[in-house]
Design brief:
9-stranded mixed beta sheet; 11 helices; globular
Length: 290
């Protein structure tokens, strides 16, 4: 069975949930502590053994690709200033992964974005990581799915339990638990009403799929807003060939949600020993003045 060496990261969206901050800056480039959102996603992929990153982008987001390239002018400034630690940090980013990009010329949904990358996948199984979903814990998030993919030899989606009042914001699976935290997917539905949701197990932006998903995407009819939903194609793939789901461990932050974005900044700030106590002191002061 082929190793998972490629990941598709869709980054072509407008980031309207994060306006006005994202008027001229891609949401994936917003900083969380001292790195942009997208770097955390790419680092998770690297820790899971992935070598090639395929960005599905648009004409206004070349800055994302540029972040993973060399900046010779800046490197020269840092080298002349003797700031060798910072020089190493930015060179490490440029060398961490092989980057490819394809444009999604029309915003026609996540399924369409994935279909745009078919030519760069070359018939191999691949991962998908949503570019504003951050996962942190022991085993990297996408790595948890790759383990199950190799064990079960089937496509895999990552899920987490969400409150009932939020099921209408996610794709929800109906699954049979066959091992602790591992499910055989019976069905899935995109953004169901609470009364129609088969469970609280929500798909959270991590997938390992086989190349036959592209055939299903080509047959998937556009839904609301003219968008092609990845969930609709996966639903038929699961019915025909089977699919697994993994209840992912670790912490998750949706960088498009302001509360979670700010929480992620606090989380990483607290990991820095030079900032931790000053940050805690400031947070206590904030609480006192509420």
């Amino acid at each position: 069975m082929k190793e998972i060496r490629k990941v598709i990261i869709p980054v072509a969206g407008w980031g309207t949930r994060s306006l006005p901050a994202t008027k001229n800056i891609p949401k994936e480039m917003l900083p969380i502590y001292n790195k942009p959102v997208i770097q955390y996603v790419v680092e998770e992929a690297i820790r899971s053994g992935i070598k090639d990153v395929i960005f599905v982008t648009n004409r206004d987001k070349s800055v994302i690709e540029d972040h993973f390239d060399y900046n010779l002018q800046l490197e020269g400034v840092l080298e002349r200033a003797g700031k060798l630690d910072k020089l190493k940090a930015i060179r490490d980013v440029a060398e961490m992964v092989n980057v490819m990009a394809v444009r999604q010329k029309k915003q026609l949904g996540l399924g369409h974005a994935i279909l745009c990358a078919e030519g760069l996948v070359h018939g191999d199984p691949f991962a998908i990581m949503v570019g504003d979903d951050l996962m942190f814990g022991g085993v990297p998030g996408i790595g948890q799915l790759i383990e199950v993919y190799h064990a079960e030899k089937k496509p895999v989606v990552g899920v987490m339990e969400v409150p009932w009042d939020k099921v209408d914001k996610y794709g929800i699976i109906d699954g049979e638990e066959v091992a602790p935290g591992i499910y055989k997917v019976r069905d899935m539905v995109e953004k169901p009403k609470r009364e129609d949701a088969p469970s609280r197990l929500a798909i959270v932006g991590r997938y390992v799929l086989t190349p036959d998903i592209f055939d299903y995407l080509k047959k998937t009819k556009p839904g609301a807003g003219g968008e092609i939903q990845l969930t609709d194609a996966m639903q038929q793939l699961a019915r025909d060939h089977g699919m697994m789901a993994v209840r992912m461990s670790g912490m998750r932050f949706d960088a498009g949600d302001w509360a979670e974005y700010l929480s992620a900044n606090i989380y990483f700030g607290l990991q820095d020993e030079d900032l931790r106590y000053e940050l805690l002191s400031m947070l206590k002061n904030f609480v006192q003045f509420q």
